[in-house]
């Protein structure tokens, strides 16, 4: 039974952020009551090794849906091969004023300017401890909105040190359009300094904890070919373990005539699909399989996922597709995953 197609029309009568919260609460109730097991029977494994980690299948949850790690078990019960929580910042922060989340069903898209609303990394780590999840858990870290951009490295260092013992991998998010100047960290000297510092710290933490936790850099779709090439070279130089392509776009070309087109924020879903795929292709040409690519952006069905694999991705993540298609999307992609990603 595809229960999501039954409740979706009701959820879509609510404003987007309320619907989001209600859905996650329903999901948790379904998990706690044991209903999830009946609604979402276990998927057949499609194991893949990426960044040295064993994933039971290549379909993950993208960051931003479970910013505080409240719903890890409930989301895992849907069949994901990995779950990424966050973005989390060192200190709690409220994010931008509401409304800050908008649905554009005509485009299978979302605009959001949440602004890293989260309860801080200590709170998130308490939630991780409470969960029963044993699969691959990514923790996505960012900076507080009021930390000066010149001091951003310090926030990422706090995130890295604190998340290290609890995470399977850690994502460095420098691509959200909703924190002022954040995406500047993708540029020239700033990206080099950030990556060099975090790599050094990762190796220190490896010695301290006796385990290696991979680092992935999450980048924007609004980068030039030159930017992509420069970032790929940095990833290779500093042996960063993975790259997530992409975050949401600030480009409105595809939705120019939509009444919500002028809302500030990041656009996700179908309108970002081709831009994200182009970034995956650009990275793939530069990285030559030396560093794995995790693709996100506009994956709404198995064919969209297949396009990302064909472009060079080893894993995929979904967010907007989950809102429009429901958990059935995960099964569809896992079962349709014809490509066998490389480790
Ligand atoms: C409401 C919303 C909130 C998001 N929050 C985050 C976030 O906190 N950190 C992050 O790295 N990406 C965040 N993203 C971006 C997604 O993780 C993903 O990279 C992007 O939406 C493209 O995938 P999609 O088209 O499947 O949604 C968010 C996306 C949406 C729609």
UniProtKB/TrEMBL annotation:
PROSITE patterns (UniProt xref): DHODEHASE_1, DHODEHASE_2
GO biological process: 'de novo' pyrimidine nucleobase biosynthetic process; 'de novo' UMP biosynthetic process
List of residues binding substrate: 67, 112-116, 173, 178, 247-248
EC number from the UniProt entry: 1.3.5.2
Lineage, opening ranks: Bacteria, Pseudomonadati, Pseudomonadota, Gammaproteobacteria, Methylococcales
Name the UniProt record assigns to this protein: Dihydroorotate dehydrogenase (quinone)
UniProt subcellular location: Cell membrane
Native source organism of the sequence: Methyloglobulus morosus KoM1
Pathway(s) annotated for this protein in UniProt: Pyrimidine metabolism; UMP biosynthesis via de novo pathway; orotate from (S)-dihydroorotate (quinone route): step 1/1
